[in-house]
Design a protein that fits this description.
Radius of gyration: 19 Å
Number of strands: 0
Number of domains: 1
Low-confidence stretches: none
Number of helices: 7
Structural class: mainly alpha
Strand content: under 5%
Shape: globular
Amino acid sequence: MIAPEIWWYLSRATGLVAWALAVGSLLVGLALATRAMGPNPKGPWLLDLHRWLGGLAVAFTVGHIAALMADSFVTFDVVDVLVPFAADWRPGAVAWGVLALWLMVAIEATSLLMKRIPKRIWRSVHLSSYGLAVTATLHGVTAGTDVGHPAIAWIVLGTIAAATFFVAYRRVAPARGARRPVPAS
């Protein structure tokens, strides 16, 4: 017989891993977009890593939701995990997670359809990755029971610092294709 607590532990673990994978995908995507790792990363490995992390984030999010629905201590049904503020348990905190879920679905769907949809639509939806990172983080810190652990707090702070670096770098770095001034002889 499976101990009933297993679902709670599984939901916590898959939630933390899903968050880390989603934010990792965002950071790798920012590294690609900003060219912070140089003008030409070696081979397509960085783009593959970005896509792989995003796909794994979806898989772990599905695992997180399934474990929550299997847990008998706090009961969640399909409506609770798909509709913001429908859950009885911490409705605001769960709503952040539901919003993050829908942003993730939109980002992944348009990424899979990237070759079939206009680039401006893909780009607009893909930029909502910032919102996904914010809402998923808010969900984790308001609903998560592990946020009080120092390691989790440091990881969240480190992630915020890394994202801030890449966004700032993108703002101050020359645009792609911009010519650099030639030094005077």
